[in-house]
Amino acid sequence: MGFKMGIVGLPNVGKSTLFNALTKTAAAQAANFPFCTIEPNVGEVNVPDARLDKLAEIAGSKEIIPTRMTFVDIAGLVKGASKGEGLGNQFLANIREVDAIAHVLRCFEDGDVTHVEGRVDPVPDADTIETELMLADLESIEKRRAGLVRKLKGNDKDAQQQDRLLAAAQEVLENGHPARVVDVDAEDAKAWKMLQLLTTKPVLYVCNVAEDESNTGNAHSEAVAKMAAEQGNSHVIISARIEEEISQLDADEAEMFLSEMGLEEPGLDRLIRAGYELLHLETYFTVGPKEARAWTIRQGTAAPQAAGVIHGDFERGFIRAETIAYDDFVACNGEQGAKEAGKMRAEGKSYIVKDGDVLHFLFNT
């Protein structure tokens, strides 16, 4: 299981350029005019993880299969989108389908690239999109609550739960806050997620800076960092132009280019890691002579459910998980060495899988 992240932002902030770099394709038309992305473009990328390469090397795996992450480049948004301005209705529908939002903010100065508001100021840009999402949520909530009236009169328990959660969201939205600030009990978590409110999506601010500022950022990105910290959100600094250049190079050329720019790694690697942290995801591995493979799960996942990511039969017939920590697998030079050193553990149904675990599942068919 990977996850789906929607790339959003005002027109001409670098969304499509970033998407092109992410997917190493030119599928999204990056052009200097609003709404150049008419349909949401979808691309899958490998999640970089040096541990997987190391495991494959030790085990002599013939194939390396990283976990995958889906990016959706969603059409540009303008003020009034909640009322259908620009491509707003399409934007709002597409954003409901993603797990998280990568909000690209223009943090670069360039007189040749027009800004829809005629100025460069990322914090008000962020407020514009947040406001439109909040207005759309409020409109949706009002309609849904009106549609629940008859069921509420009949004391329908599901309707009562839904109305209670919608009322809580409505209150915070009317006070100028996104719905994600609502404190939701564990027993309401599933119903809350089913509401699919736009402002419940976790947000990662992506500061798109000029090439010579990719390592240090600038005053614009500092303002975004301050805003993100106040909101409890996170941010990354990326030069979409640099990422686009890197995407056209082979591995050796890319490494040399990064070194010349004074960068330790591509910004996209930081973006993907930040996305994982945002959604509280982690990785476990299965390793053998045929393949070394990474699997994505949410933090706190028990062994049977982790097995179910591979196949439902693994979860239904789960017996135990033979488990080796990544560091032990490497230190003992593989599975056999780990066994001999007493580093392989047999874990049962209550075991919570840890990031980096190397697992082999035993199950009944």
Could you characterize what this model shows?
The protein is of the alpha/beta class. The protein has 15 helices and twelve strands. Helix 1 packs parallel to helix 9. The longest helix is centred in the middle third of the chain and has 26 residues, at 122-147. The protein starts with a strand and ends with a strand. Mean pLDDT is 86; it is low at 25-38.
- Kindly name the structural category: alpha/beta
Order of helices and strands: EHEHEEHEHHHHEHEHHHEEHHEHHEE
Number of helices: 15
Mean pLDDT over the full residue set: 86
**What does the radius of gyration come to?**
23 Å
Strand content: 15-25%
- Measure the end-to-end span: 22 Å
Q: Taking strands numbered 1, 2, ... along the chain, how are they ordered across the largest sheet? A: 2-4-1-5-6-7
Extract low-pLDDT stretches: 25-38
Largest sheet: 6 strands, mixed
Molecular shape: flat
